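Pasting as-is:
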Amino acid sequence: MTRRRTLFLGLAGGIAGASIAATAVLAQEGLNPVVKARHAQMTLFAFNLGTLGAMAQDKAEYDAEAATAAAGNIVKLSSLAAGPMWAPGTGVGDVEGTRALPAIWENMDDVITKAVALNEAAVAMEAAAGEGLDSLKAAFGPLGAACGECHKSYREPE
C-alpha cells in the first residue's frame, strides 16, 4: 500500500469515527482531547526538529546518533494514522485552543498531499541525518519547508 493511500485511509477513516466520538467527549467538562492530541503531535515534531535544527544551524554539536533518532521520530510522527486528531468541528471558531483553520476540512486532498510530502521529507532526513553534518543540513531545508507549507495554508497566525 502506498504512503499516500495509507495516510488517506488513516485520515478519512479516522475523521468519520472521530467526529462522533469527539463531539461526545468535547461536551464533557470542556475537555478537548482532539486538540490536545494535535498539540502533542506538534510538540513532538517541534522537539525533534529543534534537535536537528540546532545541529543544522551549528548551535549544537553534530551527533549522528541523536540526529538519526530525531529524524526517525519525525518519520514515525508523520506516519501516524492521525485522522482522529483532525475531527471536523475542532478548528478555529469551533473550539478553544486551536489554530487549525476550517480550510483543512474544505481541502482535505491538499492536506493529505502536504502530509505525504512531509513524510517523504522526513524519510529523506532519516537517511541523511547519520551521514554527516553536510548531509543533515541539505535535508533540513526541505523538511522545514514541508512543515511550513501546511502551516502557511492551514494554521492561523499568532
